[in-house]
Specification:
Length: 251
């Protein structure tokens, strides 16, 4: 009986953790470039001294959904939509910084001229340095990530390239999501390479790929699953009490 209680208990815990993942997805249905987090459960035999009779229902991070989100035309030249398999390189938060990746490319320029994402993360150039935009009266981002501006007070003939956004081609299997929502290279010894040719579109955004209706259905299924697991625990406890009563009567 205690084996059934253990499986039901760990299964209920895994159901709650999966609900947390779904809640996170639903909270990001309107976040540009967000990739749906996936959750799964696997059997994990408990090892130790004695007979291996316990199996844990273990919640596992199954990565993220690779499907592209719907394209949204905005007309804003700072809104970028990346080609499939490409990721925008940004400076990770924290003292160490480092390179992280996102597909949420709704960019803006801070008062001091720094190019940042909607989350405030500095966008990196092809050399891995944060991009600073000089004062200008017009700006254009090419399909290869090249940034061109017409300096303030100058004519169209003075348009100049000031840098190129670092957009990398990344193998999805080597990307892992951090607690800050940014992706990182799971094998830093093999850095991602700069994407060549057409790597993005300006004036449009990739939406979140979360299916809100499907996530709500999964949430209901997980809630019912959790309730059944709790019932198994309750019935197991009742059965144990009944068995103990019968043993006392028999004694």
């Amino acid at each position: 009986m205690d084996k059934a209680l253990y499986v039901a208990m760990t299964g209920a815990r895994a159901s709650l953790q999966a609900q947390g993942t779904l809640s996170h997805n639903l909270a990001n249905t309107d976040t540009p470039g967000f990739k749906e987090a996936l959750a799964n459960t696997e059997a994990f035999p408990i090892k130790g001294t004695g007979y291996a009779s316990r199996v844990d229902a273990l919640h596992v991070d199954a990565g993220f959904n690779r499907r592209m989100g719907a394209q949204q035309i905005t007309g804003n030249p700072l809104d970028l939509s990346l080609q499939a398999g490409n990721w925008l390189a940004v400076q990770a938060p924290g003292a160490n910084g480092g390179e992280a990746y996102t597909r949420g490319a709704a960019l803006s320029i801070t008062p001091n001229g720094q190019l940042v994402t909607a989350g405030g993360h500095p966008v990196l150039d092809e050399n891995g340095n944060p991009i600073a935009i000089p004062p200008h009266q017009a700006m254009d981002i090419g399909n290869d990530g090249t940034i061109s501006i017409i300096p303030l007070g100058e004519g169209p003939q003075t348009m100049a390239n000031i840098g190129r956004i670092r957009v990398v081609q990344a193998d999805d299997a080597r990307l892992e999501r951090g607690l800050d929502g940014l992706m990182r290279n799971s094998d830093p010894q093999q850095p991602f390479v700069q994407a060549q040719g057409k790597s993005l579109e300006s004036g449009q955004l990739e939406g979140s790929n979360v299916d809100a209706a499907g996530a709500l259905v999964q949430m209901i299924q997980l809630q019912r699953q959790y309730e059944m697991q709790v019932k198994v625990i309750k019935h197991g406890d009742d059965n144990a009490r009944s068995a103990n009563s019968l043993l006392r009567l028999g004694g």
